């Protein structure tokens, strides 16, 4: 099968491509590398700035690239905004891809209309990036996303593509819940792919019972409040103040991806995405290496995977005191670390191996009829 993957989020498409290639398929990934993360791709489309001349240059390179994006059996978009273009300019590109290829699929992998709409207008989730129960969170970034995806052109584009495309694979329970309510017959859940061969178990056993527990937290200043990193970091600092010799904080703040990975590899526990029900790519990559995740591990996550045995994730509520108590328990019971580390690796091998996930995509793409 000849497959085109357009756009990138946290290495999802490149990892999926590697799994597909291992199964004998021909794959082309076109992206900007997900910005500063600079993930691999086959065709690079990078827009340096949002300025006018960079925009003109980017659009010209895109038009020159379009003839290479024809004749594929399957095209999958990472998001309705799969290019660095204004939404109103993206319609024409989508229609072109639709005319000159076989089936077209829209990934439900992140911020989009159906995610924002579900979180802000329904009681689907007990909590999310946008709500605590019936209370909506309020911040400048959240107001911006609502304006774009509910009231703006991005939302219109999302509704257009979702209605027109052949199918919608989703990577987390939350995104499945959002899309399935609107498109039950063409939405499916497929776990995110992790290359478990390249990302080997590397967790170093504690050299002594008194060695400190090493907690890793990645900090993106622009998204700290939105992702709950601010609350997690406060709880972690409280923990260090109370147990200064029993825990160590390893922070990665605006560092290159390779350095980020090195810092993570030297840790025991990763704190990631306070408001999530489920682990996403960054957390899954850490779990593959044997780190223990403090983050999203709600019952819905295990249910959608049909996982009845493993419970490796330290699930936390979006509350500083709950985070503190869960972290304190790890410090006071460090003997749990070895088992949780092994279970974390097994969890990723069982559900997220990139070859197994790629086979699930092939099955979905093959059996979904073209509109």
Could you outline the blueprint of secondary structure elements for this entry?
Blueprint: E1 2-6, H1 12-22, E2 26-31, E3 43-44, H2 52-65, E4 74-77, H3 87-100, E5 103-106, H4 113-121, E6 131-132, E7 135-136, H5 140-151, H6 153-164, E8 168-170, H7 173-180, E9 187-189, E10 213-219, H8 224-227, H9 229-242, E11 247-253, H10 257-265, E12 269-271, H11 281-288, E13 292-295, H12 299-305, E14 314-315, H13 320-332, H14 337-352, H15 354-367
Parallel strand pairs: 1-2, 1-4, 2-3, 4-5, 8-9, 10-11, 10-12, 12-13, 13-14
Antiparallel strand pairs: 6-7
Helix pairs in contact: 1-15, 3-6, 4-5, 4-7, 5-6, 9-13, 11-14
Short description:
The chain has 371 residues and is of the alpha/beta class.
* Low-pLDDT stretches: none
Strand order of the largest sheet: 3-2-1-4-5
Mind telling me which CATH architecture of the largest domain this is?
A: 3-Layer(aba) Sandwich
Distance between the termini: 19 Å
The tally of strands reads 14
Strand fraction equals 5-15%
